[in-house]
Design a protein that fits this description.
Layout lengths: L1 H39 L4 E3 L8 E3 L6 H16 L6 H8 L5 H21 L2 E11 L6 E11 L6 E14 L2 E11 L5 H23 L1
Antiparallel strand pairs: 1-2, 3-4, 4-5, 5-6
Length: about 210
């Protein structure tokens, strides 16, 4: 009888130990998976870029809209407010932000503008009025405002100007993927699509008139 009780107790103990071992293994696996997930998780940085009046965050390859729009505004402000003395400094500020595929083209345009500003001895001033995010491309912003060019005569010339800037986030840094400056209203994707449809319509009507 004692032998039977001992066997039952022994079997129960072994069964309990096996169950506990399974739990321990499961906990170890869970801990390992937690550590792996923590290591793979990218760091979110809370930071304050130029021209930003509120808190913003930036991840390894993405950022809050407020962060990106603040950088777009800062870049437009740098490009739009230039005089013969500050031209080279502005170029040095923007150069590290340029994507490789547009790097040389943009630098050539900046060099040309710097040369023209020095030659004509003009000062450019830009007053932003609107910061618009493209509905079709969330990485693209349009900084719309008034540009004023003042030469040696002191008589300023004012224009409506748009800075079209596409920004990507790479390794926590903003990178300028596209940059265009032009006179007039912003040419958003919606506007471009509307213009393309209008051009196609005009082309079809012209073909129909020629056929008749």
């Amino acid at each position: 009888m004692l032998s039977g009780k001992f066997k039952n107790t022994y079997r129960g103990t072994m069964s309990e130990n096996a169950f506990l071992r399974k739990i321990i293994v499961a906990l170890i696996l869970l801990e390992v998976l937690t550590v792996i997930g923590w290591l793979r998780k990218s760091t979110v940085v809370d930071m304050q870029p130029p021209t930003l009046a509120e808190r913003a965050w930036v991840d390894q390859d993405r950022a809050s809209d407020s962060y990106v729009s603040a950088w777009a505004l800062y870049i437009a402000d740098r490009l739009g407010n230039v005089n013969p003395k500050s031209a080279e400094i502005i170029k040095a500020t923007l150069e590290p932000l340029l994507a490789n595929d547009i790097y040389q083209d943009v630098l050539n345009k900046i060099d040309s503008q710097v040369h023209q500003i020095r030659q004509d001895r003009v000062t450019l001033e830009f007053e932003p009025r609107q910061v618009l995010q493209d509905k079709e491309n969330a990485s693209k912003y349009f900084i719309v405002g008034k540009s004023k060019m003042t030469g040696p005569s002191g008589q300023p010339k004012q224009l409506d100007m748009t800075y079209e800037i596409e920004l990507k986030i790479k390794n926590y840094k903003p990178v300028i993927a596209f940059l265009s400056v032009y006179e007039g209203a912003p040419r958003t994707e919606e506007v471009r699509n509307r213009e393309a449809k209008a051009a196609d319509t005009r082309k079809r009507l012209e073909q129909q008139r020629n056929e008749n």
